[in-house]
Amino acid sequence: MPARAPFDLIVRGGRVVDPETGFDAVADVGVAGGRIAAIGALAGASAGASEIDAAGRIVCPGFVDLHAHGQTIAADRMQAFDGVTTTLELEVGALPVAEWYDAQAAGGRTLHYGAAVSWISARKAVMAGLTPDPALHPMEMMGQGAADEGGWSSRAATPDEVERIVALVREGLAAGGVGVGIPHGYAPGAGVKEMSRLCDVAAGAGVPTFTHIPWMSNVDPQSSEESYLRIIGYAAATGAHMHICHLNSTSLQDIARCRELLLEAQAMGLAITVEAYPYGTGSTVLSAAFFAAPDFSARTGTDYRSIGLIRTGRQLADRAELMAAREEEPGALIAWQFLDVADNAAHRDLLDLSVLFPGGAIASDAMPFVAPDGAIYRDAAWPLPEDLSAHPRSAGTFTRFLSHYCFERRAVDLREALAKCTIIPAAILEGGLPQMRRKARLQVGCDADVVVFDPETLADRATFADMTAPSRGVEALLVGGIPVIADGRLDPAARPGRAMRREGAAG
Predict the structure, then answer these.
(1) What separation, in Å, do the N-terminal and C-terminal C-alpha atoms of the chain show?
(2) Are 88 and 458 in contact (CB under 8 A)?
(3) Percent helix, strand, coil in the chain (nearest 5)?
(4) What is the rounded CA–CA span in Å between residue 376 and residue 135?
(5) Alpha-carbon distance 272 to 281, whole Å?
(6) In this structure, which long-range contacts are made by residues 47-50, counting pairs with CB atoms below 8 Å and at least 24 apart in sequence?
(7) Which residues face 60 on adjacent strands?
(8) Is the CB of residue 471 less than 8 Å from the CB of residue 387?
(9) 61 φ, ψ (degrees, to nearest 5)
(10) Ramachandran region of residue 252, left (φ > 0), alpha (ψ -120 to 50) or beta?
(11) Suppose 66 and one of 108, 270, 310, 363 were both cysteines; which one would form an S-S bond, judging by CB atoms 3.0 to 4.6 Å apart?
(12) In degrees rounded to 5, what are phi and psi of residue 57?
């Protein structure tokens, strides 16, 4: 029997960059058994191995997205062209957790996947009787309960309700949830006692919370600054790792002061981490509580004309129109321009403060793709139908960040830019998710999650007029050593994604 070839695949002659170690040299990368087996000059070792020509290209670890709501084959494929190999639903999370993981495994996934425990679904279950349905997408569940049945969004839980909510969260962690998703802004009535208990649970399990702050406002009371001070207090009092979702959108025009407070807290040794995406327009469901506030414009510095329905392109005129639209379709996806980065230099500077936060991760907040009838698109057709809608960040966050901030503006060097997409998000997770210690690194023995891209052509292409345009420049993408993209073309049959799930969990 002939000897087995030493490698299954070799990536030849690219500029190999590992952000953790600082390795940066032209080299070959040998892959065997889904792991990186060798890095160096591998001439003569190619018998039986497939090859990818990476000459003139950058070869680096696949990107880790902490905040991706897509979680479908369609969403995976678009993120693959954005360089992502691990895509995680950590802000909203999932419930029931075991059933969510089972459904992903049964259908197969293109990218590695995982979820936190959905606190807000637990809250709706306890306070409104909205039993989590594993057949629903997490974003469909987010759209439920717009009428605030039982006060699940607007009031503090009773002591008995807190115990029941915490019990559901504990069950979700035992089932494999990789953290606690706390989109507090969608249930701003939740009180400090409930939040502190959730933080205790997360700290005890050794996992982060992934937190959308309760209030987004430039003015007191209940300002963004007050929200961040609460998070700092939770970290100090409970020892919980508080991860802050989308610093750019929740800070609004107060990013400079909020950033200063968070840096001071980090300097004191508190376990606080942040993420941001490189857009001044956000997206969420129409039923989000903060849009309905009577003083929305005064508090956020934007008016209702800054809000548009993504699927139809319809702009809202005033609060009355918003409330009518909420009643008709509470789960509809909207776009909200909270910063005018196209025409306002001061707003561009504010966005920079969040995107370039020292040691901060890049995370997309990618939305799922939605069909013209408003249903989340779950089919496996490729290319995606042009009439789908989402948000440009669902297709272009990482390529936009690298092309704009690193290669065009030189605002950040290549190693740091890649770290914000790889080792920084991985490090946020790996204390409670040891699987991540083999990811986001281009080192021998690590998982072969690898992206090969051309820095000259790398660019995001998705816009609100064309949300299904894949990014340009990613020429190869390996997930667990399996090519998902080769020669710039997607393999629609590839399903190498594996679950990122806490060890020892049930299921």
Answers:
(1) 40
(2) no
(3) 35, 20, 45
(4) 12
(5) 25
(6) 47/5, 48/4, 48/5, 49/5, 49/6, 49/7, 49/8, 49/9, 49/10, 50/8, 50/9, 50/10, 50/483
(7) 451
(8) no
(9) -60, 150
(10) left
(11) 363
(12) -110, 165
For Cα atoms 360, 365, 369, give the angle at the middle one, nearest 5 degrees. 155
Q: Whose CA is closest to 402, among 356, 368, 366?
A: 356
Please report the pLDDT score of residue 4 as a whole number: 53
Q: What is the residue-wise DSSP string for 482-498? A: EEEEETTEE-TT-----
Question: Distance (Å, rounded) from C-alpha 29 to C-alpha 337?
Answer: 43
Helix axes 224-238, 192-205, angle to 10 degrees: 50
Give the CA count within 13 Å in the CB-facing half-sphere of 356: 15
Output the six-digit token pair for 227. Answer: 């929200």
What pLDDT sits at residue 332? 86
Low-confidence ranges of the chain (pLDDT < 70): 1-5, 45-47, 504-507
Q: Which two tokens stand for residue 95?
A: 């419930």
Residue 354, beta-bridge partner list: none
Exposed/middle/buried for residue 257 (C-beta within 10 Å: 0-12, 13-18, 19+)? middle
Nearest to 431 by CA among 277, 273, 309: 273
Locate tokens 């400079």: which residue? 256
- Please give the Cα distance from 169 to 116 (Å, whole number): 10
| Overall pTM surpassing 0.85 (yes/no) | yes
The single residue listed with the structure tokens 């970290």 is: 235
Instruction: Provide the 8-state DSSP code for 442.
Output: -
pLDDT in tens, 132-160: 999 999 999 998 998 899 999 999 999 99
Identity of the amino acid at 181: G
492: cis peptide before it, omega within 30°?
no
Residue whose token pair is 């051309």 = 454
Tokens 């915490």, residue? 166
- Are residues 485 and 498 in contact, defined by beta-carbon separation less than 8 angstroms? no
Contacts of 490 (CB under 8 A, 6+ apart): 77, 80, 81, 382, 484
Query: Can you tell me the distance from the alpha carbon of 474 to that of 451, in angstroms, rounded to the nearest whole number?
Result: 7
Residue 37, CB-side half-sphere exposure with 13 Å CA sphere:
18
Report the chain's mean pLDDT, rounded to a whole number. Answer: 95
Residues 300-357: tens digit of each pLDDT:
999 999 999 988 888 999 999 999 998 888 888 889 999 999 999 999 999 999 999 9
150/146 Cα distance (integer angstroms): 11
| CA max distance for the chain | 77
What radius of gyration, in Å, describes the C-alpha atoms of the chain?
22
- Name residue 130's amino acid: L
Amino acid of residue 440: A
User: What region, left, alpha or beta, does residue 285 occupy, with left being phi > 0 and alpha being psi -120 to 50 degrees?
Assistant: beta
Q: Is the peptide bond before 221 cis (omega within 30 degrees of 0)?
A: yes
Look at the block and give the residue holding tokens 């789960």.
331
Between CA 212 and CA 219, with CA 218 as vertex, the angle to 5 degrees is 115
